[in-house]
Amino acid sequence: MATQRVLQWRAFARTWWLYDAANQCPFVSAYRVVPYLQGKHKPIFHPLSDVGDHVVVINTKDIAMQADYWRTFTFFHHTGYPGGFSKASAWRVHEIDPTRVMQLSVYSRIKGNLLRKGLMRRLHLFPDDKIPDEILENVSDQIRQVQPVAKRLDQYSEEEVTEFPKFFDWPEDFVKDGYKRHMTRKKPKRRYTV
Fold first, then answer.
1. Structural domains in the chain (count)
2. Which Pfam family, just one, is annotated for this protein (predicted)?
């Protein structure tokens, strides 16, 4: 009987989750983060109950957007007064505040009801991996990243580079860096007949 009570308190407790947003799309990451804010991973979830957890998102300055979204995606805002409409592209919003793009993508993912402000209060955003100690000591688990991040070539050791299997060896007389493309022939002029 006592074990059931412990399990029940564990389900009701608010845990703190850590999510690394480096090289992740903020719109896709919002779909991963919001269920933890709402508490959908818990067996006691109900749409009208506030049982969600805290989510700490780090490295929001290193987010990545697909295709041409930095230039073409636009955030809109209206104050409610006449002439209060404003819009800004994603790169501009990210340049002003590195956490704002992630915040707006999570905010737009949450259903617009009375619980939205409370859920957003439990979202903690940091532009880099420097987290205050009082928050870091509460973090108990980590949310898996949406997109796998590949290692750069400079992050591999010298042994790993030499042990990597080669597809072919370059010939001895081949010059890799000396090859330059020259335009040998000019385009012929087109003669249009009427």
1. 1
2. Ribosomal_L13
